[in-house]
Design a protein that fits this description.
alpha/beta, 17 strands, 442 residues, 14 helices, six-stranded mixed beta sheet
């Protein structure tokens, strides 16, 4: 709030308010006054070099890392947490989540429950999901679309200390065309009001520009679009384009003008290629991408967020979905394996993302092992979070690697993580910005 506006509201003088503000700025923060913490482990993977250092040591003061490695200066009164045979890692960064939404093994039951749940009630579910995600080692996440702005509310609650979860960047409502994957289900219009631009549904360049502005107005950090159809929606083909090149250009240009990045859900190749040509920052899923499109992505620096574990999950559960969804799941899953291997061969930049809510929340780290199963090295898989997602989300200056000056977002996992990448699924310690939220607190 501007100083003179505060004067008008409070009746205090400008001089008094200035003195109060000056004292607040000079006062030491409670975190800065707390004893330093020293984390010791057999190994350390800093997320920058791609190598393992042994032994591992980190010094944390307040919410920041102040020392890394055996040469780091350790304050005399530091609190030591010795994790033994473990690996220290940067906190995981998941670039594709739906923490504000719920997973249900029974697709029809979940659909019914969501229809009857008020947004305030859903916010409590979202807080539970956020805590499970943080406990899994995810200290930063991008929430790519939620109804009723529950994701915006969740982000604000976490930032305000009212809920426990990762640092969130949120999209508000995802943007797409009428009848597309980002639209609501085809309810009879006399019973359920059709969605409009406020809910992210648009059908012309001008409408799509308005939809972007409305999401940003109500708190979106990032813009999510549905460039093609999806798997878990019944009414649309999975691979066809759902936004025109002119609509894509309007969305992406407007978002970039306002400093927001754009993530494009796209299983289909043509839809993805059009989005890449329009300047999108990332393609999510990418099941049917061809060599030509992957080469274009590498050339333009467009990230692939493959959400591999979701493909594995839905193929395994295909028989539990309605027939139309099951058929799409099998087709996308089969194509995704070939696409991912080709993306690795070409060298497309990859960011870790999981599509949490398609599977139960808190299993996010399975993505690392699922990518390794397709030929990625363990070190490269870990770097899709520390380098890929951090840079895609624009937070790499603050987090993502274990370096002095960055937020103390840290995960410890059992043993040597490069010998057992699945150890990421069983963290023994999680620290978010200097606060231990899971594991030893001695």
């Amino acid at each position: 709030m501007k100083l003179r506006a505060m004067v008008a509201l409070t009746g205090l003088s400008v001089g008094l308010l200035s003195a109060i503000a000056s004292q607040a700025q000079q006062a030491p923060s409670p975190q800065a006054a707390s004893p330093a913490k020293v984390l010791k482990a057999a190994h350390l993977f800093d997320g920058r070099s791609g190598r393992l250092e042994s032994p591992g040591l980190l010094v944390v003061q307040g919410n920041r890392i102040i020392g890394v490695g055996s040469a780091a200066s350790v304050p005399a009164d530091a609190q030591v947490i010795d994790l033994g045979d473990a690996t220290l890692l940067p906190g995981f960064i998941d670039a594709h989540t739906h923490i504000a939404s719920d997973h249900d093994d029974n697709w029809a039951q979940g659909f019914y429950d969501n229809m009857l749940r008020f947004p305030v009630e859903q916010s409590f579910h979202a807080a539970r999901n956020a805590k499970a995600t943080l406990q899994a080692g995810v200290t930063t996440a991008r929430e790519v679309g939620a109804p009723d702005n529950v994701d915006v509310a969740l982000r604000n609650a976490i930032n305000g200390g009212l809920a426990e979860g990762p640092r969130l960047l949120v999209a508000g409502h995802a943007i797409g065309s009428t009848g597309g994957h980002c639209d609501s289900s085809p309810f009879p219009p006399e019973r359920v009001k059709p969605a409009g631009t406020l809910e992210g549904v648009c059908n012309s360049p001008d409408e799509c520009k308005l939809a972007v502005r409305e999401q940003m107005k109500f708190g979106a950090d990032v813009i999510k679009i549905c460039a093609s159809g999806g798997v878990l929606s019944e009414a649309d083909p999975v691979d066809v384009p759902q936004l025109t090149p002119a609509e894509l250009s309007a969305i992406i240009t407007e978002a970039h003008t306002w400093g927001r990045k754009v993530a494009a859900h796209s299983h289909g190749d043509l839809a993805a290629r059009q989005a890449v040509e329009a300047g999108v920052d990332s393609i999510e899923h990418g099941s049917f991408l061809t060599t030509q499109t992957l080469q274009l992505m590498k050339k333009k620096g467009t990230y692939l967020v493959p959400t591999r574990m979701t493909q594995v999950w839905v193929v395994d559960k295909a028989n539990t979905y309605p027939p139309k969804i099951g058929d799409k799941a099998r087709a996308a899953g089969a194509a995704h394996t070939k696409m991912f291997k080709e993306a690795l061969r070409i060298g497309v930049p990859i960011a870790l993302g999981t599509d949490a809510a398609v599977y139960p929340h808190g299993l996010n780290a399975q993505e690392f092992g699922d990518m390794v199963d397709l030929g990625m090295s363990p070190a490269a898989a870990l770097m899709t979070s520390s380098q890929g997602s951090a840079k895609l989300l624009g937070v790499d200056g603050e987090t993502g690697t274990l370096e002095a000056g960055k937020f103390a977002d840290i995960v410890a996992v059992p043993g040597n993580v490069l010998e057992n990448i699945r150890a990421t699924e069983k963290p023994v310690l999680v620290m978010k910005q200097g606060t231990v939220v899971r594991g030893a607190k001695q």
